[in-house]
Each structure stands twice: as structure tokens, then as C-alpha cells.
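Structure first, sequence second, as always.
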């Protein structure tokens, strides 16, 4: 069993949130038909929509899910690295 200490867990949360926020500059066009001038950002879910001539629209639930997704990915990587180093 691999144990994660508090410093590692805090680091994983910070990195997961940073990656989630960083995906706000990654364009992710939806497959459905939309307004061509609008830009859709966020990965894997679109959480920031830039409309032409209007303020940006933020979807905070999708942002939370994105950050949670990246938190889990980073946690899996940390656990695998710790397990491989321990072996």
C-alpha cells in the first residue's frame, strides 16, 4: 500500500487546480453547430466561452469538474511514481 503524505496531497491539489485553470486557454470546439465567432475553452469540459462583443461566460460547475479530473490524473501519476520508486 502506498501512502501519500499531506505535503504530496496539497501539491497534487495545487497542480490539479493549476492545470484545470490552464485549460481555460486551450480551445475545445464542440461537435455541435454553434456560432463560429465564439471560442470554447477548457479540457475535457468547456468551461469558458468567449462571445464576440460580449463578456466571457464562465461555467463554474464544469470548471470544478475539470479541476477534479486533473486532480485525479495527477494523483494517479504521483501514486505510480511512489510505487515504482519504492520497488
Amino acid at each position: 500500500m502506498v501512502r501519500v503524505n499531506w505535503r504530496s496531497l496539497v501539491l497534487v491539489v495545487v497542480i490539479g487546480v493549476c492545470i484545470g485553470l490552464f485549460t481555460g486557454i486551450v480551445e475545445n470546439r464542440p461537435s455541435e453547430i454553434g456560432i463560429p465567432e465564439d471560442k470554447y475553452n477548457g479540457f475535457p469540459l468547456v468551461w469558458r466561452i468567449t462571445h464576440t462583443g460580449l463578456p466571457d461566460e464562465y461555467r463554474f460547475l464544469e470548471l470544478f469538474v475539470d479541476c477534479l479530473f486533473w486532480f485525479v490524473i495527477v494523483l494517479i501519476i504521483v501514486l505510480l511514481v511512489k510505487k515504482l520508486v519504492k520497488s
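Margin note: Residues 27-86 form one domain.
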